[in-house]
Design brief:
Length: 346
């Protein structure tokens, strides 16, 4: 077998340096990891990788033999995210027990480390979301020790606060369970062909009173004769419920929320849009609105209610329908949430 072919098939980056510390062999994955255009033969490990810890470890192994293991970070740049590598090094020993160099293997841990950061952020945000209503509940429950506090209008206020925060916890737990089902692949869709106009008319009717009570106008624009889409009606209701609740939460009194449907540019999908005239989202944060618990302005947004999971649920459900969803927004200019679903083939 050809050694280069074997090395070229590996997902790990591999380099071999001689006793003088010069690179004598490297595979393609190593070149890609460090943005090198050609084989770095004749260069030192330091020149090829710019990693002081690895260069020092290679020198030590050349001197004393043995093996080493490191975890190193490579800073990002304009074209590449920061990277994390597990680096394993070992002396190359010939038949006469004489050391002839060092083999270095780079395993990319970047995706794993980014997932760990996401997990840590999720746990932190979840802890905060749970702690806030629990702290309120604990504080008001202390007042129950004094029966006199429960009389008249003050008692009604206390019960209202308790009920509101219990509902908030119930919604949060419900959304978490829903996301858990989606993540584990346990959520099954029962699809049927439905006209886009029919879907949007149902949404408009469901939310007409809520919008009217806040003095927000709800406009619907959708051609009658659009191709049908294959959807689970219950889950589509859930998608639009989250989108409409979000739009209504941030729409100022007297503004307009537009609900539209049209044929996509390629003619193979239907594009739905929910557009509000609210505060909008800074451009550098638009791509993060579908992250779990992400809030553009944590304190102010939290006061408006919601669990912080609605758009994440929307994204999961749209993807289960083989569709796409994204946001367009600028601070002070309102927000558009756009989702596309493939046209029914029947």
């Amino acid at each position: 077998m050809n050694l280069q072919a074997i090395l070229g098939s590996l997902t790990e980056g591999v380099l071999v340096s001689g006793r003088e510390g010069k690179i004598v062999l490297a595979n393609g994955q190593f070149l890609r990891m460090f943005d090198l255009e050609d084989l770095p033969s004749g260069r030192t490990v330091m020149e090829a990788t710019r990693l002081v810890e690895v260069d020092r470890a290679v020198e030590e192994i050349n001197e004393a033999g043995g093996v080493r293991g490191l975890e190193v970070q490579v800073p990002g740049n304009e074209s590449r995210q920061a990277q994390t590598f597990a680096v394993n090094m070992a002396a190359i020993v010939e038949g006469d027990q004489e050391r002839s160099g060092v083999v270095v293997v780079f395993h990319d841990l970047s995706k794993l480390r980014r997932l760990e950061v996401v997990r840590q952020e999720f746990v932190t945000n979840l802890s905060h979301e749970l702690r806030t209503p629990l702290s309120i509940l604990a504080g008001y429950l202390e007042t129950l020790e004094d029966p006199s506090q429960l009389k008249g209008s003050e008692g009604k206020k206390i019960w209202a606060v308790l009920q509101r925060n219990c509902e908030r916890l119930t919604l949060l737990v419900g959304d978490l369970l829903e996301l858990s089902k989606m993540d584990s692949g346990q959520l099954e869709l029962r699809k049927m062909a439905r006209p886009p106009m029919e879907i949007l008319q149902e949404v408009q009717e469901d939310w007409r009173r809520a919008f009217a009570s806040k003095k927000v106008k709800l406009e619907l624009e959708c051609p009658e004769k659009l191709p049908a889409v294959q959807v689970d009606s219950l889950r589509m209701g859930q998608i639009f419920s989250n989108l409409m609740e979000n739009a209504l939460r941030f729409a100022p009194e007297g503004s307009v929320v537009k609900l539209t449907g049209k044929l996509g540019e390629a003619g193979r999908e239907i594009e739905f849009t929910v557009e509000d005239e609210g505060e909008g989202i800074p451009e550098d944060k638009v791509d993060r609105v579908f992250e779990r618990f992400f809030r553009v302005d944590g304190g102010r947004v939290r006061e408006k209610g919601g669990t912080g999971l609605g758009l994440s649920i929307v994204k999961h459900l749209v993807q289960l329908h083989e569709g796409r969803v994204w946001a367009k927004s600028r601070a002070g200019e309102g927000t558009q949430i756009i989702l596309t679903l493939p046209c029914s083939k029947s």
